[in-house]
Amino acid sequence: MIPPALQAFSSSALPVLDIAGTIVFAISGAIEAARARLTIVTFMFFAAITGVGGGTVRDLLIGAPVFWMHTSIPITACLLSAIAVWFTPARFWPARAVEWFDGLGIAAYGVFGSAKALAYGIPLIPAALMGIVSACMGGIFRDVLAGVPSIIIRPELYVTAVALASGAYVSLTALGLSTTIAADLAVLAGFSLRAAALIKGLGLPHYKR
Amino acid sequence: MIPPALQAFSSSALPVLDIAGTIVFAISGAIEAARARLTIVTFMFFAAITGVGGGTVRDLLIGAPVFWMHTSIPITACLLSAIAVWFTPARFWPARAVEWFDGLGIAAYGVFGSAKALAYGIPLIPAALMGIVSACMGGIFRDVLAGVPSIIIRPELYVTAVALASGAYVSLTALGLSTTIAADLAVLAGFSLRAAALIKGLGLPHYKR
Amino acid sequence: MIPPALQAFSSSALPVLDIAGTIVFAISGAIEAARARLTIVTFMFFAAITGVGGGTVRDLLIGAPVFWMHTSIPITACLLSAIAVWFTPARFWPARAVEWFDGLGIAAYGVFGSAKALAYGIPLIPAALMGIVSACMGGIFRDVLAGVPSIIIRPELYVTAVALASGAYVSLTALGLSTTIAADLAVLAGFSLRAAALIKGLGLPHYKR
């Protein structure tokens, strides 16, 4: 069931991005729970659903075993992240710092999601979308459950930065670049766009027709 | 993994309904984004999630490979639908015309979803429900993400029309009718009921006990 | 595809909990529809999504065939539950009685979900979480679709009681207890905690840092 290309994928540096991205998203989920003054159990629930939600949808769509079902590491990392946020004062998690951390997380996780999809034989366009799903779906679940406007609705360059990272990775590897160089360039491009959005408040134009 | 009955299914006319339904739903998703004055990236996101959402849930439930993962056509159709809606004035998409178009789409997609479920060996009652899931779940995702009351809450005959189409197809084929005749009759029945609802504002009675 | 440990699981008493839990959740979904004064079709939709939603997510995550796809019994039970609620006055379903019934349902279904995950070879921590997903996700879907604050947000001991039942079952079987004794003790522990919460209004402390 696991395609041979997956071997090369597993032995590359990419899987490291997986656990790093999971922790970044888990922390952002727990912080949302902190803002809503919820309980330790809901901290854990939000951390888990935000941390593994996007990767779970990606794995179900591409037909891969769900990544946190055959090892306890990702979900344990989410639960520990929730406990860490619970036991630290809110000022330890300034919104601005979290957003920068998250900006790196979504670019890296977008590239990772697309790389995993390609390793499972998914064509270029759906593979690029799998990067966006991986990086954004956990945050969408978090926002819908918390009842706040989803990241998908905000005009800010957020999904667009992930789309740049995922699209660049898929395009560059299709052009023959090595996965390592393509991943580095793609993460850099996506994170730079997100950084520009954070610094200058860049956003996309709204529909006005 | 793919049952033999699927061969006959694939060579029938039914799969044509798949891409047509996807485009109808994608346009309705992009129009929701237009009403909320969102950006081109959110247009694409809404078009994609509305266009392929219902069929994705159906495929996951019946154990089929997710239909837009092994060909780029459905998702490309969604993205192009979003671009088309973005570049045209809102008056090109009068709510009334969209509703008629959508009424045909849900009846056809409901029949298609049930037919695919039957081809995968799903029993009659769950197969009829798979038609409803296929036709309605994308719109539910669209409404939840946009924060508007879901189609499922409205009293209007909407889900009921899909249920009629799906149920009629499953019943008629179980009675021995050919898939083509059963599909034609079922789409006609579902669309007629939806048309009656649109013309006369027909709705189901509310619970009052 | 089905692991051998599943044989023992299927021949134990646990699967009985499955249909009982499904009916309890279906009734709670239909009652939510009754409170919102919806129609018979939406009663059925809410009963189905609440009744089979949690178990569906569990099965997709652990890689099992979705339980209501190869037998018509669970979904038929949901539809009949909806019809039963529709035809009885609201006073037949006092909120308090439903909550006690639901408290037993979530404890039993949490244990069942974890047992099924263990039977599919899922490690302890994710398996405990699968119990929580099985018991709580249907209610979350119900609340998100109805537009009411999700059970996950309320401070009351609800998810915590499920976590106790699931965690106790996973721990006790890991320590070598028979599945029957572990299941009995775990359901008792989870239901007792939920009962204490219902009687004394017990809740978890909120984040205040």
Short description:
The first copy, chain A, has 209 residues and is mostly helical.
Low-confidence stretches of chain A: none
Structural class of chain A: mainly alpha
Assembly type: homotrimer
Order of helices and strands of chain A: HHHHHHHH
Q: What number of domains of chain A?
A: 1
What best-fitting shape of chain A do the alpha-carbon axes yield?
Answer: globular
The biggest beta sheet of chain A is recorded as:
none
End-to-end C-alpha gap of chain A: 48 Å
Percent helix among the residues of chain A?
A: over 70%
Instruction: Estimate what percentage of residues of chain A fall within beta strands.
Output: under 5%
Transmembrane segments (chains A, B, C): 12-31, 38-55, 67-88, 125-145, 157-175, 181-199
Domain Glycine transporter (chains A, B, C): 16-88, 100-172
Organism (chains A, B, C): Gluconobacter albidus
Membrane topology (chains A, B, C): Multi-pass membrane protein
Polypeptide structure, described:
The structure is a homotrimer of 209-residue chains. The first copy, chain A, is an all-alpha fold and 209 residues long. Chain A has one domain. Helices cover 73% and strands 0% of the residues of chain A. Chain A is built from 8 helices and no strands. The radius of gyration of chain A is 17 Å and the shape is globular. Chain A starts with a helix and ends in a 9-residue tail after the last helix. The mean pLDDT of chain A is 87. Chains in contact: A-B, A-C, B-C. Chains B and C meet through helix 3, helix 6 and helix 7 of B and helix 3, helix 4 and helix 6 of C.
